[in-house]
Amino acid sequence: MRPTDQVLSPSEAAARLGVSAKALRLYEERGLVTPLRTAAGWRAYGPEQMARAGEIAAFRALGLSLSQVARVLDGDPRGLEAALAAHQASLLARSSELVTLAAKVGDLRARLAEGQALDATQLSDLLPNRPAIAFDLPWPWGGERFEFHDVRPLTWLVGPLGSGKTRLARRLAEAWPGARFLGLDRQADEAAVGAGLDADAELKARVERAFTWLREDGATESIALTALLAGLEADGPTALVVDLVEDGLDEATQRALAAFLRRRAQPCRPLVLMTRSSAILDLAAVEPDEAILFCPANHSPPLRVAPYPGVAGYEAVANCLAAPDVRARTAGVIAWRPDGRPEAAA
Question: What global pTM score does this model have?
Answer without folding.
Answer: 0.70
